[in-house]
Amino acid sequence: MTHPKHPAAKPYVETLHPYVPGRPIADVMREYGLSSVAKIASNESPMGAPKAALDAVAETLKDTHIYPDNDGLELTKALSAKHGVDAEQIVLSAGSSHLLELAARAYAGEGDEVIYSEYGFLCYPIFTKVVGATGIAAKEENYTANPQAMLEHITDKTKIIFIANPNNPTGTLLDEQTIRNFLDKVPAHILVVLDEAYTEYALADGGFDGVELVKDYANLLVCRTFSKVYGLAALRAGYGIAQPHIAHVLHKLRPPFSLSTPALAGATAALGAAEHIQKSVAHNKAEKDRLTKAYSDLGLLACEAACNFLLLDISATKKTPQEIFMFMQQNGVIVRPVEVYGLLHHIRISIGTEAENNQALELFKHAVQNGTHALVG
Question: Most-buried pick from 9, 19, 222, 277 (CB within 10 A)?
Answer without folding.
Answer: 222
